[in-house]
Amino acid sequence: MTGNEDTKIKIEKAALAEFMDKGFANASLRQIVKNAGLTTGAFYKYYSTKESLFAALVEPYANKIYSIYDVTLQNFQTLTSEEQQKAMIRVSTDSISEMLDYIYEHYDNFKLLLCKADGTPFTSFIHNLVEKETDSTLRFIEDMRNSGTNIPRLDKDFVHMVSSGMFSAMFEIVAHDMEKSKAVERVKMLKKFYTGGWEKLFGISF
After folding, report:
1. Ordered alpha helix ranges (H), the chain
2. Cα–Cα distance between 111 and 133 in angstroms, integer?
3. How many domains does the chain have?
């Protein structure tokens, strides 16, 4: 490990502790620099602002979750409508499992992202996922209808509400510091709840 890498690790370790304790808005950059054992001048060789430092701790992890979702969706959309209906539960289960594994591998970073990000653009993390889910659900509805499956159209506002409820509930596992085994079980229950609701609305089985 080079001296620069070692210094960067010290900064990020000190920042993680300060942000975790006080949240982004109330965290002190001066305290982070002090706890890292640096001068302010030395710090600015690595990060230009408190915002850029916080971003370094959360943005790669947010982007990975977006990527898991996007890749899953891209693969799902290569299926026919009939195949999509049959594969829905398996595909969504695999995607959520991958997300949960990644979240618990990088738990502190997700704690910052989901609970300590007020005052940063990263408060939109869940909203961004909801937008993706809303768009993909509306596309699924149209694809099913175009293939001859007579499911009802749903307006975007309603689908957004349902998607928001699902993702907001899912990430409660981090807000409430659930152990992974418990989180997995709770998310399985949540998924059953929402699957049953969609089946009732659409009049089909997944």
Report:
1. 3-26, 29-35, 40-43, 50-76, 81-105, 107-115, 125-146, 156-170, 172-175, 180-202
2. 22
3. 2
In a domain, 121, yes or no: yes
Q: Are 43 and 135 contained in the same domain?
A: no
User: Residue 1's domain is classified under what CATH number?
Assistant: 1.10.10.60
Domain residue limits at 9:
1-48
Structure tokens at 8: 């960067």
pTM: 0.93
pLDDT band at 94 (very low <50, low <70, confident <90, very high): very high
Contact 14, 29 (CB under 8 A): no
Backbone angles phi, psi at 102, to 5 degrees: -70, -40
Whether the Cβ atoms of residue 162 and residue 190 lie closer than 8 Å to each other: no
pLDDT in tens, 59-89: 999 999 999 999 999 999 999 988 999 999 9
The Cα 150–Cα 153 span in angstroms is 9
pLDDT tens-place string over residues 116-174 = 999 999 999 999 999 999 999 999 999 999 999 989 999 999 999 999 999 999 999 99
Residues 31 and 66 in one domain: no
Residue 53 forms part of a structural domain:
no
